[in-house]
């Protein structure tokens, strides 16, 4: 018996934020965020670089924390 809600698909219910190891450049944080929010990886990477230029300390700390805390993607 399958219990699915009418207003959500099964794909969005099982969606988890994690690092994407198959498309990573440094640690996979930007690729994982792009996959979670269904954006192109290039857009997320350009936004991350722009944020790094505007707020270098905050973005650097946020990226390092995200790379340590986010789990590695176990599903493809």
Number of contiguous helices: 4
**Radius of gyration computed on alpha carbons:** 15 Å
Low-confidence stretches: none
Supply the helix-strand structural class: mainly alpha
Shape: globular
Q: Mean pLDDT score, rounded?
A: 82
What does this structure look like?
By secondary structure, the chain is mostly helical. The protein has one domain. It is 54% helix and 0% strand. The radius of gyration is 15 Å and the shape is globular. The model has no long low-confidence stretch (mean pLDDT 82).
Set down the secondary structure blueprint.
Blueprint: H1 10-13, H2 29-37, H3 41-54, H4 56-69
Q: Keywords, please?
A:
single chain, 76 residues, mainly alpha, 4 helices, 54% helix
Summarize the structure.
By secondary structure, the protein is an all-alpha fold. 54% of the residues lie in helices and 0% in strands. α2 packs across α3 and α3 packs across α4 (56-69).
């Amino acid at each position: 018996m399958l219990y699915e809600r009418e207003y959500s698909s099964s794909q969005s219910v099982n969606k988890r934020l994690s690092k994407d190891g198959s498309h990573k450049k440094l640690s996979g944080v930007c690729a994982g965020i792009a996959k979670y929010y269904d954006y192109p990886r290039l857009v997320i990477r350009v936004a991350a670089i722009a944020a790094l230029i505007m707020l270098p300390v905050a973005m650097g700390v946020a990226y390092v924390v995200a790379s340590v805390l986010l789990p590695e993607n176990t599903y493809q």
